[in-house]
Amino acid sequence: MSKDSKTNLIRYLSEEKRFDGRKLDEFRQIEIEYNVSKTAEGSARVKVGETEVIAGIKLEMGKPFPDTPDEGALMVGTELLPLSSPDFEAGPPGIEAIEMARVVDRGLRESKAIDNKKLCVKKGEKVWIISVDICTINNQGNLLDVCGLAAIAALKVAKFPGFDGERVDYKTHTDEPVPLLKIPIPVTVFKLSGKYFVDPTSEEEQEYDSRLTVTTIEDGTICALQKGGDAPITVEDVDNMVSIALRKANEIRKSL
Question: What percent of the chain is modeled with pLDDT above 70?
Answer without folding.
Answer: 98
